[in-house]
Amino acid sequence: MKVIVQVRPNKDMRRILFEHGPGVARIRKILRNAVMTALSLKAGGAPLTPRNRDRPSSRSAGDLVGTITVTLVDDHEISGLNREYFGETGPTDVISFPYFGPLLKEGKEAGQYGRRELGEPAPAVEGPRAEEEPFGDIVISVQTALSQAKEYGVSLERELALLAVHGALHLLGYDDITPDDRDSMRKAEGEVLNCLGYS
User: What integer pLDDT is reported at residue 62 of this predicted model?
Assistant: First the structure.
């Protein structure tokens, strides 16, 4: 599995990462490590539901191949994605776009965040190209993460790690729609964050 972390060229976001966090390069390492740790610990652990039955939650981490892209954006950009793909107004903290199984509302392609129609199976790719195929995208708002970090009394670094883990768990098939789903998601997040050294 390959994880790419990119930061939009936005001066305000970069300023936030330097003033309230360890800087862009360190954040990239932290988020890459958070996603890889979530995949290593939780692949195969997502409870099976009708919404995630087509996702690769039954695979072990060693079986997962492809690329996950984590993109740090501002509230304006994530608000647009939230409205376009989910019909919600305003910013959110993290959005995940899996490249397999039921993805978004019916008839909606994932644009830059997805390459196939709803329900269309991922093509089988083997050999050296397999890791180049997209597995999913995670989009995180730095501004919302900073607000939440202040509200919860945690570092920006920890909040961004949590959001990356949350996004990775969604890609593995975890959900947070029902109270039981939320409990499973929170437990999995806690296990991964503990392994990363965040309490």
Answer: 59
**Would you kindly state where each structural domain of the chain is located, as residue ranges?**
2-196
Distance CA 36, CA 16 (A): 24
CATH class of 2-196: alpha beta
Distance between CA atoms of residues 35 and 177, nearest Å: 21
Closest CA to 168 of 193, 146, 132: 193
Is residue 9 exposed (0-12), middle (13-18) or buried (19+ Cβ within 10 Å)? exposed
Burial, 21: exposed, middle or buried (Cβ in 10 Å; 0-12, 13-18, 19+)? Answer: buried
Band of pLDDT at residue 61, cut at 50, 70 and 90:
low
Distance CA 199, CA 190 (A): 8
- 125, pLDDT greater than 70: no
pTM summary value: 0.80
Q: Is 10 left (phi over 0), alpha (psi -120 to 50) or beta?
A: beta
- Contact between 35 and 164 under an 8 Å Cβ cutoff? The reply is yes
> Can you tell me the mean pLDDT for 24-34?
94
